[in-house]
Amino acid sequence: MKGCKMAMVRLVALIVLYTSLGHIPSSLGVILRTTDKIVWANEFEPIELTCLIESISTNNPRIEWKKIKNGVPSYVYFQNKISGDLENRAQLREPANILIFNTSRADTAEYRCEVAAIEDQRDFDEILISLAVRVKPVVPRCSVPESVTVGTSTELRCLENEGFPASQYRWFHNNEELPQDPKTSQRFVNFSYIINPDTGSLKFRRVRKEDAGKYYCQAKNDAGNAQCPPKTMDVCDVDVLGIFLQSCGGLMAVVTLIFVIYLMKRLCCYKSVYNGNNYNTPAQAPAVDYADADEGHFRHKSSFII
């Protein structure tokens, strides 16, 4: 009897000790675990979120799954059926795992597995799992100039916005990959360009004749890659004649403008002079009575006797 009493006392003391330390013997509560708390999946491929019940005494415990997106929870598995946006795309697998048949980018979220066991002393436990769905890049939009002049600077651009995680970019010249640092390759040591793998920019400081050729860009992440069709960039010599003709044309335009301004000023001066002088019809001289004059000239005088 004393031995049994001592054993019971030890068992109670052990239970109190475990409880005070935050540990509960597996036979007294439900305990969950998962193989991965952070899960990556490729879009359109299956993925399983594991919710393993390590210990439980209750038969037919209540199992629920919730999806938490932007802090807002919604049911995924409730009252023994799949619901929400995973309906017809997932199923519950024993003991409490969720299998998603074909993941989509919209499935990226946190998922919480909850198990309630009313017959256990610890009657509830939960596991939080983060799911991130990788999305393959789409064909990037590439911008390659058709023609550039030797010695000038130019930029080639490449961009796509669908891939997740964000794409890294690589450029190819005549089907040969351009190293990010040209000085690391004997083949491209004389090239003067800068590649930004995060933005997809390819900048040439000073274009050379050797830079001519076909260029294409590849966008890549953990889900796959995609590339744009090759585009040809021609490199032309400096057009000395064209520059000369342009200069002459510019000079002629300046001379013509000066001449027009000169003519306008002359015209304005002429109008000013014209308006400043009195051009009224001059007053007529007093009329002369030519008849009287003649008569006075030929008038017979009394002293004139025929």
Write the topology of this structure:
Elements: H1 2-20, E1 31-33, E2 38-42, E3 47-49, E4 52-55, E5 62-69, E6 72-78, E7 81-82, E8 90-93, E9 97-100, E10 109-116, E11 124-134, E12 141-143, E13 147-149, E14 154-159, E15 168-173, E16 176-177, E17 193-196, E18 201-204, E19 213-221, E20 224-227, E21 231-236, H2 240-276, H3 290-298
Overview of the structural elements:
- Residues 25-125, 137-234 form the Ig-like domain.
- Belongs to the immunoglobulin superfamily.
- Keywords: Cell junction, Cell membrane, Disulfide bond, Immunoglobulin domain, Membrane, Signal, Tight junction, Transmembrane, Transmembrane helix.
- GO terms for molecular function: cell-cell adhesion mediator activity; integrin binding; protein heterodimerization activity; protein homodimerization activity.
- InterPro entries: Ig-like_dom, Ig-like_dom_sf, Ig-like_fold, Ig_sub, Ig_sub2, JAM-C.
- This protein is α+β, with helices and mostly antiparallel strands and 306 residues long.
- Among the domains are: 24-134, Sandwich (Immunoglobulin-like), CATH 2.60.40.10; 141-236, Immunoglobulins (Immunoglobulin-like, Sandwich), CATH 2.60.40.
- 21% of the residues lie in helices and 35% in strands.
- The protein has three helices and 21 strands.
- The chain has helices at residues 2-20, 240-276, 290-298, and strands spanning 31-33, 38-42, 47-49, 52-55, 62-69, 72-78, 81-82, 90-93, 97-100, 109-116, 124-134, 141-143, 147-149, 154-159, 168-173, 176-177, 193-196, 201-204, 213-221, 224-227, 231-236.
- The strands form five sheets. Strands 2-11-10-5-6-7 form a six-stranded mixed sheet, with no helix packed on it. Strands 13, 15, 16, 19, 20 and 21 form a six-stranded mixed sheet that branches. A four-stranded antiparallel sheet has the order 12-14-18-17, with no helix packed on it.
- Strand 5 (62-69) and strand 6 form a beta hairpin.
- The longest helix is centred in the last third of the chain and has 37 residues, at 240-276.
- The radius of gyration is 49 Å and the shape is elongated.
- The N and C termini lie far apart (206 Å).
- 18% of the residues are buried.
